[in-house]
Design a protein that fits this description.
By secondary structure, this protein is α+β, with helices and mostly antiparallel strands. The protein is built from eight helices and ten strands. The N and C termini lie far apart (about 55 Å). Strands 4-5-6-9-8-7 form a six-stranded antiparallel sheet. The protein has a two-stranded antiparallel ribbon with strand order 1-2. It holds the Pfam family GntR. One of its GO terms (molecular function) is DNA binding. InterPro entries: Bact_HTH_transcr_reg, Chorismate_lyase_/UTRA_dom_sf, CP_lyase_PhnF, Tscrpt_reg_HTH_GntR, UTRA, WH-like_DNA-bd_sf, WH_DNA-bd_sf.
Length: about 250
């Protein structure tokens, strides 16, 4: 592998290192087809290029800004496998989306809270101001090839009318899926009424759950799901790591 750097050539050393590593990533020396998709450690790279770790860290940040790698604190730096197409249509299901890419998903309920609906939540769910709702915080990940916890893909806040879904907490304890919880309350199917797509920089909590830095943008999807008679059953805001997920809006068949 190339290790020679040109000192005083007018190109910062960290940029030269980033260019070399980007070329090696493009040649698939890391990632798909290799035993490990993890880049060598900062210490190893510093030794290879004869520089300090700060210079290596700046090079890795440059690669992350290009979407070539993802830095997971405490684990290392991993080559990005490419964004997963996430289809948003009339029936939008996270697990089914990943299955289209031969991937499995896992869902973790982070918190369940009951309280008065904020105005935007009440309007979306067709409730009076201050009506009681459940707020469910969810983290979704892919499942790694060895069955372990994979890469975090989406973090979301989901709101449900408390009066209609009175047994929500017990239902989620039995099965940590929205579909199972709704089915337990008689909603056997639901569809997407609307989705609003945007982008923003993550706050500290989002960045922590998605294992990204706060300079990496997230895609946002604000949505309303309804039952078979058009009554709102869920209002949600999902945050996707933009370098891991690509949103695909699918029109209705004619």
């Amino acid at each position: 592998m190339t290790t020679q750097l040109e000192r005083g050539a007018g190109v910062a050393v960290w940029r030269q290192i980033a260019q070399i590593l980007a070329t090696e990533i493009g040649e698939r020396r890391y990632g798909e087809g290799q035993p490990d998709d993890r880049l060598p450690s900062e210490t190893d790279l510093a030794g290879r290029f004869g520089v300090n770790r700060h210079t290596v860290r700046r090079a890795i940040l440059g690669l992350a800004e290009q979407g070539l790698v993802n830095v997971e604190h405490g684990r290392g730096t991993f080559v990005q496998a490419g964004a997963i197409d996430y289809v948003i249509g009339r029936r939008t299901r996270f697990s089914e989306n990943l299955e289209q890419h031969n991937l499995k998903a896992t869902q973790q309920i982070l918190s369940v809270r009951k309280g008065a609906a904020e105005p935007i939540v009440a309007r979306a769910l067709g409730l009076r101001a201050g009506a009681q709702v459940f707020r469910v915080e969810i983290l979704r990940r892919s499942v790694s090839d060895d069955g372990g916890i994979g890469v975090p893909l989406a973090y979301s806040h989901n709101y449900f009318p408390a009066r209609r879904f009175a047994e929500l907490e017990a239902a989620f304890r039995r099965s940590e899926t929205i579909s199972a919880m709704l089915a337990a309350h008689g909603v056997t199917d639901y569809t997407r009424k609307e989705s609003r797509i945007g982008a923003r920089l993550p706050d500290a909590e989002m960045a922590r759950y998605l294992a990204i830095n706060r300079q990496q943008p997230v895609l946002t999807v604000e949505s309303v799901d309804v039952d078979d008679v058009g009554a709102p059953v869920k209002y949600g805001v999902a945050y996707f790591a933009a370098d891991r997920m690509q949103l695909v809006v699918q029109g209705e068949p004619s």
